[in-house]
Amino acid sequence: MGTTACKFVNTRLSNYQGTRRADPSMKVALLKRLKGECNSNSTKRVPFDVHGPSQPLGSTYFNGLLAGDGVLSLEAQLVHRSDIQPTLHHWAHNNFVFQTYFQHSFKKLGVLNVLTHTGQIARTHCGYIN
Q1: Which CATH superfamily is domain 3-110 in?
Q2: Which one of 39, 81, 94, 111 is least enclosed by Cβ atoms within 10 Å?
Q3: Helix (H, G, I), strand (E, B) or coil at 46
Q4: What Rg value do the Cα atoms of the chain yield, rounded?
Q5: What is the largest CA-CA distance in the chain?
Q6: Is the pTM of this model over 0.85?
Q7: Using an 8 Å Cβ cutoff, are 25 and 76 in contact?
Q8: Given its phi and psi angles, is residue 68 left (phi above 0), alpha (psi -120 to 50 degrees) or beta?
Q9: Distance separating alpha carbons of residues 47 and 61, to the nearest angstrom
Q10: How far is the C-alpha of 80 from the C-alpha of 94, rounded, in Å?
């Protein structure tokens, strides 16, 4: 499914919005788990899908989000948006539908003429401009 670097999670774990506290919307079990894996200078990566990290993107991920197990702040915010909740519920309970949408989107991306060898799109490290 994918992972994220601890550095993108750490402020949510210990200094959410400058409060020097964890994000109050995080479940205690998820907070403890992530604190155990990430510290302030960790270079470790953690999975987005805390329930089935070895599974393909699909219903376990969306069920985890709906259960409050989003690793990133953005994921936690998405769950509370009334315009997005129906889609999350639909994908959480209909993995085939999500996979169909995902495949269609991936095919559409495949026909774009993406710059790959010159310019800033072909980065050696996604987090930094060449």
Answers
A1: Peroxidase, domain 2 (1.10.420.10)
A2: 111
A3: strand
A4: 17
A5: 46
A6: no
A7: yes
A8: left
A9: 10
A10: 20
With a CB cutoff of 8 Å and minimum separation 6, the contacts of 66 are 79, 88, 89, 92
Instruction: Output the tens digit of pLDDT for each of the chain's 130 residues.
Output: 588 999 999 989 998 999 999 999 899 999 999 999 898 778 899 988 888 767 778 888 899 899 989 999 888 888 889 999 999 999 999 989 999 998 999 888 878 766 666 555 555 666 666 5
| 44 vs 112: CA distance, rounded Å | 33
Instruction: Answer positive or negative: Cα dihedral of 30, 31, 35, 39.
Output: positive
Q: What angle do CA 30, 31, 37 make, to 5 degrees?
A: 90
43/91 Cα distance (integer angstroms): 32
Distance in angstroms (rounded) separating the CA atoms of residues 106 and 50: 24
